[in-house]
Amino acid sequence: MIETVGDILRNNAYKFPNELAFSYHGREVTYSAHLDRSNRLASALWKRGLRRQDRVSILSQNTIEFMESYAACELAGYIAATLNWRLAAPELAFIIGDSTPRVLIFEAQYAEILDKIRDQLDYVEIFLCFGGDVPEWAEDYETFLATGDVEGAPSRPLPDEIMHLIYTSGTTGRPKGVMRTHRAEIAVAILMATELGLIVSDRLQLMMPVFHVGARFLQLAMHIRGGTVVLHYGFNPQEIVDTIESERVTMTHMAPTMVQAMLNVPGIEDRDLSSLHTVCYSAAPMPVPLLKRGLKLLGPVFLQLYGMTEGGGTTLHKRQHKPDGTPEEVKLLGSIGQAAPNVDIKIIDEEGNELPVGQPGEILTRTATHMAGYWNNSAATIAALKDGWYYTGDVGYVDEQGFLFLVDRKKDMIVSGGENIYSREVEEAIATHPAIMDVAVIGVKDDYWGETVRAVCVLNAGQSVSEADLIEHTKTQIASYKKPKSIVFIDDLPKLPSGKINKVVLRKEYGAPDAKA
User: Fold this and answer.
1) DSSP string of 262-273?
2) Residue 79 pLDDT greater than 50, yes or no
3) CATH superfamily of 413-510
């Protein structure tokens, strides 16, 4: 019986010892080999004093060593506390200081940034380095792993113990450590495998960062079915296309901007991508022109998932992507789908009353995939988890069939002249212009209106549109009072690891009344 994430590893090594767990840039790792090395790492850590629920921090891009570090925690009951490699030194110091790991496993390229904050990390007893020169204050990962026993550590986790400590992106303040149990991770793996229709012969391509739940949840889903994960160090559009063709990838996971980059690879029309049955996207809606282009090239493969670090949510299935359908079917493309099995959704007002169909309010979810709470933050936990419901902080509404339409983050809503303006609605209106590749809307302080709407836009290659013309176009899509008062054109929008747009950075750089690109 699979009760913990470690049981997935043991089950696959027993049933499919010679099948591939990972294919990684020419390196193939079988399930039995993955279990052996992960057991050795778990054992080596135990011999050095680590015990159940001690934290192990990991700072690395997508590597096999990262997956072994995850697995060692899964097997022995340590807590994997992941780190975002894009963070600056003070941000890393805060997260590491909050989780207080006894072990920090890192890729050699991050030795310099860790050295800058090492004097603040006196609770870290063991630094393990791989992938390059090992600094004098760290130990070599391979040498350390070799001290462990193939039988593993003499401990196993309990289902309700914490498996992951994954920090939120910090869009609404300081990052919070989301505590996810083994039981919740098994539930999310089953949910994802069900919604995606994964089977044992599938080959799942992952290039999104595995320190974040998006890629991590999908990896667990593929492995609970016993299939292969085709792992990439990072995102390179040409490499992604080459790998789909050469490794006969059946499913891939991207943000919409990544899909656009893939479709822009020269000669893509002549590549054999026929093995691909699903392109899972998340973090943002798929612009209709991009969706039409993708459907024409790849067929009916697109599927959208909505969720967050704290738990899973909804799916817009492949058969529901009909950009040339009826007006009702086209409207569904602006939704984030319907609740997955065993997920309940309701919409409430500020007083906690449930709202009727079509009326926007805060989205609440109830599911077995929910987090256990926030690490070292009981106040935030109490605010987010009430009576079995998770308060997402997202604003949305449901239609008569239960399709959920995401309107905005509560904190992203713009109040202009006493009117509530939802940034997502404005973004969707602007995105209908053919010159626009990507867009984010923020509020700008205004002495008269309180706030005005500003759009920050990225243009498609070779196309142009003036600020005035784009504002006029927006007026044809939404009420005039919602249109942007100003538009800034930039080369690329700042993104979070999940693929979501980082509006904290946008507000800092372009939120002043006179800000220009």
Assistant:
1) HHTSTTGGGS--
2) yes
3) ANL, C-terminal domain (3.30.300.30)
